[in-house]
Amino acid sequence: MGCSKRSESAILLGFLLLIFAESVVGRFVVEKNSLRVTSPDSIKGTHDSAIGNFGIPQYGGSMAGTVMYPKENRKGCKDFDDFGISFKSKPGALPFFVLVDRGDCFFALKVWNAQNAGAAAVLVADNMEEALITMDSPEEDHASLKYIANITIPSALIDKSFGESLKKAISGGDMVNVNLDWREAVPHPDDRVEYELWTNSNDECGVKCDMLMEFVRDFKGAAQILEKGGYTQFTPHYITWYCPQAFTISKQCKSQCINHGRYCAPDPEQDFSSGYEGKDVVLENLRQLCVFIVANETKKPWVWWDYVTDFQIGCPMKEKKYNKECANSVIESLGLDLKKIEKCMGDPNADSDNPVLKEEQNAQIGKGSRGDVTILPTLVVNSRQYRGKLEKAAVLKAICSGFEETTEPSVCLSGDVETNECLDNNGGCWQEKTANITACKDTFRGRVCVCPVVNGVRFKGDGYRSCTGMQFSYMHCRFSL
Ligand SMILES: *[C@@H]1O[C@H](CO)[C@@H](O)[C@H](O)[C@H]1NC(C)=O
Ligand SMILES: *[C@@H]1O[C@H](CO)[C@@H](O)[C@H](O)[C@H]1NC(C)=O
Ligand SMILES: *[C@@H]1O[C@H](CO)[C@@H](O)[C@H](O)[C@H]1NC(C)=O
């Protein structure tokens, strides 16, 4: 019984996905960073490499290392310890970037094994001639989910022929040094960053949902500071599918869709006979969109973060509270206009378009440098798809790298992303010790030397050797007296 229901739903789900995939012809954009070989001379040059979808890319930064190609366990599928191989570098030496070959096991496992052996980054050499692909994390494999969250080093896929030239140089006895550079991975044209999160209100889909919920809770504080300060413009998005015309009156579409099959979400348990239905998820997603729209109209878009986190905590599926009553109590507790939100949601039983969800379906289709959104969750920063772990410090780094240099807000300079280079020899910048003023400014990209503003006056100069301002002599006198 339960078995046949399950397969029925799986077939329909597959069908919906297929329709969706076909209608957009998969425009998936591979996000790249650049890899520059600095030595030996024979292979010097810059190459593209594709950022892995796990681990922590150093958005906005760069790192240098020496490439090591292990003598054994070259695919990195086994524990390097078993071969007595270590990638720990001696103090003062460049860290090791480990080169492994594609094949035999998940990308993420190779990176995990290399990290455990002390690698600072991993380069995976493709095993066929093809355009670069994104190394994704395995979704269904529960054993791997345990370590994926603990991967902290960045990784990148390189093409086959470039991999071969690296190997050749290494086997020829050359020391191969490379720079991995993420500074241009996110465009940074101005002092405001636009970013969007494609999310879902479903709280019972296993590890992926748990990860997404945890991220939203963790990131809320930073997101709200950025938004209140006018540094960012954030927009939440939700994916829906449509039911093929011929099936709109089928039991499956009725349970997974609203507005006569126009907007659907997969059944949370993939079982039509029990628990919540896909339709419940679509409705809550629509409510969250409307919360954003109404909050944005009152110039407080950041209230969306409060709503989704309060709803997650107060109205979980597990406690059978994932419903309208519970949602409305959260809306009222936040002082949002319930009537406006209901008006925005419209009638889910109507045989007509819902303008809000229609716009979301249009937005799923990629434009410009952004590919189609087909995976949840997806984060897009200044129109580039974010790659890497969905975790506060890593995402903040990506957003911070989207600001024009020196315009990044102080949240970019706090805690996890601070560099503190000004503490060391004042970063090599100009300073006036007696008056305690300096041109050194820590940014998460590293320090910059820019003449400071003192008592409202911008000092002029190159920031390295000199900075002068009207009040300087006055202050200088006062402090030296
Ligand atoms: C991952 O990290 C957590 C917390 O630091 C730890 O408890 C867990 O054992 C780690 N998992 C693996 C597979 O190492
Ligand atoms: C939110 O409001 C701003 C102006 O205040 C507007 O530019 C933006 O398009 C709005 N976003 C949405 C999704 O309505
Ligand atoms: C100089 O100013 C910084 C902050 O502007 C402060 O943290 C530091 O303690 C000051 N140093 C001295 C010697 O007054």
From TrEMBL:
<keyword id="KW-0813">Transport</keyword>
<keyword id="KW-0472">Membrane</keyword>
<keyword id="KW-0653">Protein transport</keyword>
<keyword id="KW-1015">Disulfide bond</keyword>
<keyword id="KW-1133">Transmembrane helix</keyword>
<comment type="similarity">
    <text>Belongs to the VSR (BP-80) family.</text>
</comment>
<keyword id="KW-0245">EGF-like domain</keyword>
<keyword id="KW-0106">Calcium</keyword>
<feature type="domain" description="PA">
    <location>
        <begin position="65"/>
        <end position="166"/>
    </location>
</feature>
<dbReference type="GO" id="GO:0000139">
    <property type="term" value="C:Golgi membrane"/>
</dbReference>
<dbReference type="InterPro" id="IPR056858">
    <property type="entry name" value="VSR_TRX"/>
</dbReference>
<keyword id="KW-0333">Golgi apparatus</keyword>
<dbReference type="GO" id="GO:0006623">
    <property type="term" value="P:protein targeting to vacuole"/>
</dbReference>
<dbReference type="Pfam" id="PF02225">
    <property type="entry name" value="PA"/>
</dbReference>
<feature type="signal peptide">
    <location>
        <begin position="1"/>
        <end position="26"/>
    </location>
</feature>
<dbReference type="InterPro" id="IPR003137">
    <property type="entry name" value="PA_domain"/>
</dbReference>
<keyword id="KW-0675">Receptor</keyword>
<dbReference type="Pfam" id="PF25011">
    <property type="entry name" value="VSR_TRX"/>
</dbReference>
<keyword id="KW-0677">Repeat</keyword>
<keyword id="KW-0812">Transmembrane</keyword>
<protein>
    <submittedName>
        <fullName>Vacuolar-sorting receptor 3</fullName>
    </submittedName>
</protein>
<keyword id="KW-0732">Signal</keyword>
<dbReference type="InterPro" id="IPR046450">
    <property type="entry name" value="PA_dom_sf"/>
</dbReference>
<feature type="domain" description="Vacuolar sorting receptor thioredoxin-like">
    <location>
        <begin position="193"/>
        <end position="400"/>
    </location>
</feature>
<keyword id="KW-0325">Glycoprotein</keyword>
